[in-house]
Amino acid sequence: MELTTQAGEKASILGLAGQQQIDVECISVAFEAGINYFFFYNLDSENFLVGLKSLLATKREQVLVTTGSEDRSIDRLRRYFDACRQQLNIDGVDVFFLEYVSPSDDINQVQIALDELRSWKEKGLVRYVGITTHNRAIALDMIEGFQCEVLMHRYNMAHRKVEEDVLPTAYRVSIPVVAFTCTRWGTLLKGHPNWQGKLPTAADCYRYVLQNPAIHLALTAPKTRQQLEANLTVLHTPLLSAQEVASWQEYGDLIYGTGQDAFDTQWI
């Protein structure tokens, strides 16, 4: 399955994610450069939402508007969804994610929440029902059971175990994967005492993620226009060579280390 805009255009391979420091102008810059996928976690990213609302006023059918919520309460989900539509002055969103499904979740609550999202889709308010998770077992259950139409999952040079099971399965059942934390919260950009080669840029991190055929797009969340423009080079650069992939995997192993970080042990 392909993620497409209302006008039928494929989702860009890079998606812009909202965060509080971003400049308003970055939204139009990103769109003009070829990004048509915009994601926000909540309504706190005011500049991002102002810029997105302005873009949607004339380009709604050419833009994928995507968001989600960690709430499992139906009332809170509805309130947030209504607030998003009101804030952006739109009737519905393209992808709505039930976010951070984890082993601590009550599976019945998750199913009830997913049923609510599906009801929004039936009403034409949502085009794709999505799930985000850091947990590989949950990701596999969700895509094998066709519980979602889009999966947003952590994937980067250091966190590569998804290459063994989640990504091949998603590819086989045609569920598109959106990759996030591609720079591993910035740690991939900082180097390692035992690494003597060049350090990856954020663009290198996105290129690594995008070389996997299961990944439909990578999320980027630059703070400045300069960072955005550097990341936009991904839209026009070739895929990594086999030698480059191997080199970045070696580097990723160093950054991952012994895997004692809480995100490595609790959210594998």
From TrEMBL:
Membrane-traversing stretches: none
> What InterPro entries does the annotation carry?
AKR2_Oxidoreductase, NAD(P)_OxRdtase_dom_sf, NADP_OxRdtase_dom
Q: Give the highest taxon in the source lineage.
A: Bacteria
**Pfam families, A to Z:** Aldo_ket_red (PF00248)
Q: Which residues form the NADP-dependent oxidoreductase domain?
A: 25-190
PANTHER family, sorted? D-THREO-ALDOSE 1-DEHYDROGENASE, NADP-DEPENDENT OXIDOREDUCTASE DOMAIN-CONTAINING PROTEIN
Q: This protein is called what?
A: Oxidoreductase
The protein's organism comes out as: Fischerella thermalis CCMEE 5268
